[in-house]
Amino acid sequence: MLWALVAFAMMAGDPGTGTATQAIPARVQTSQPTPKTASAARVPSSEDSAAERELLELANKDRREAGLPLLRSDEGLAAAARAHAQLMVENAQLEHQFLGEPSLLQRFALVSALRLDRAGENIAHDSCAAGAEQSFMESAAHRQNLLDPGFNVAGFAAIRSHGRLYVVQDFGHEVSTHTVGQTRELVSQAVDRVRSEARLPALSQYEPAKLDDAVCSLAKEQHPSSRLLETAYDNRRIITYTQSQPEILPQGAVRLLHDRDVRQFAVGSCYARNATYPSGIYWVAILLY
Fold it and tell me: What pTM did the predictor assign?
């Protein structure tokens, strides 16, 4: 019998609140104190690896029947899920974030090198894995996480304590990994498409000195502000943005690229993690001349 259910989902960098869906705040605390528990003594518990495997098999069975891509298991996300499940055991409480515990994406970033732009979590306690999965599927919010076509990686935890099976299902969307050169090429192709669709002449491309390093400085400042680049690069218009898919240009960039007087462009990029984007994001600058 399932005692309680909670669903949670977030996207990197978007502010907002909610219950079944919630976004990570635009700014988060960088300090990560030790999570507080209800008791200093560790509650007797045991990890159930067989139940974890069953949870993944059942989740992928449900996704297969819905015509969705299967989830790939990631040990880093599983480690994050187990750590959180242990906190639920120690507190004898279902909660997505305990006092002093990092946010979901921060927890992922601490144990996994995956590049993620979305995350979600289902939690519950039940008598068995099959019972938890069935109840998840019967709950609209939990079913949404399980059958979200955007999630492609997951880590599940199952810990037994006092006759209960505490379950944590952690989901993520892993984005493509690009080198600096590949990112520059993707953005350049997007620039060419915008100019072509507007029936404007193609722009010539050049590579100013240390532009990639300058873009990485934006990540350190935790804000993609073009003003931080203005003193280093004169006689140009600067577009800066962050994206998990760098080839998706912001509307402001599209408008500037429609200018018939523009003749040249340059692209700088950097993939970086910080407090706002704990799992990382692509930082991009386009200079127009």
Answer: 0.79
